[in-house]
Amino acid sequence: MDMLPTRDGYGLGLVWLGENNPNVVVLTGDLSESTRSSWFAEKFPKRFIEVGVAEQNMMGIAAGLALSGKIPFVSSYATFNPGRNWDQLRVSVCYSGANVKIAGAHAGISVGPDGATHQALEDIAITRVLPDLVVIVPCDKIEAQKATIAMAVEIKGPAYIRFGREKSPVFTTEDTPFKIGRAEVFREGDDVAIIGSGMLVYNALQAAEELHKEGISCQVVNNHTIKPIDRKTIAAAARKCGAVVTVEEHQINGGAGSAVIEVLAEEYPVPVERVGMPDSFGQSGQPAELIEHYGMGKSAIIKAVKKVLKRK
């Protein structure tokens, strides 16, 4: 299985958009190589803007470009974009309904050695609360490319995509279904539904395979769109299985798991266990070690499944 970072999918998506839509422009805050926006810059230098370390200014420029008919993608680390420039995202972009696409790179604990200051673990929470802002968390490089393209082709309005730094399994294909706002069932099961987002969907599939050997049948759902969330698929999973485990590389409060719980509270309440960052900041370390240390690995998912089964 190929191991490639999800940010590669973002870069490839930008290049495809550049080739197919002359109104697409890309901005970055001195992080073109890390965000893979440099791939767009190499082919379309006249449509690339290097703003420098001025993320708030970058968002304001993007809003103006969008209101002038362009489709700007603003690219930086998620701690800065949407972290540092959230005010400009809220007022200049979302309040104005500007057609700006926000890319938050180096999201999650798997950023690794860069440490807590650069490990974005709150970005889903601060974006999904903003009116009319679409929030997407692709599970691998291929899905990130599809999502990047769809943000410009299918959505007229603000949208946020988060992706990681570390290489991760590429376990979807070009033929794997993807549509913004529609979760996909990657594995059928009827004892527990594991609803995951981002790169940890692969961990969920591994956990489901291990649990199958013990006679526990798990459905695995790839919930790539946090907003607008797929209420129908999530409620159907809860009805079928009667228990849910959410999995995400984000703070356990306010993120994708919280969004799932909000749906279930209104549609079909069932026992839920959450796997995510346990209300703490990260630290420097190797990505795989940090995932395990903070309880987001395969073993943690298996433990959560067994725990929620006892509550059915």
Automatic annotation (TrEMBL):
Residues 4-170 form the Transketolase-like pyrimidine-binding domain. It holds the Pfam family Transketolase_C. GO terms for biological process: isoprenoid biosynthetic process; thiamine biosynthetic process. The keyword Isomerase does not apply. Keywords: Isoprene biosynthesis, Magnesium, Metal-binding, Thiamine biosynthesis, Thiamine pyrophosphate, Transferase. Signal peptide: none annotated. It comes from the Bacteria. Its cofactor is thiamine diphosphate. One of its GO terms (molecular function) is transferase activity. InterPro entries: PDH/Transketolase (IPR051157), THDP-binding (IPR029061), Transketo_C/PFOR_II (IPR009014), Transketolase-like_Pyr-bd (IPR005475), Transketolase_BS (IPR020826), Transketolase_C (IPR033248). The keyword Magnesium applies. Belongs to the transketolase family. PANTHER family: PYRUVATE DEHYDROGENASE E1 COMPONENT, TRANSKETOLASE-LIKE PYRIMIDINE-BINDING DOMAIN-CONTAINING PROTEIN. This is Transketolase.
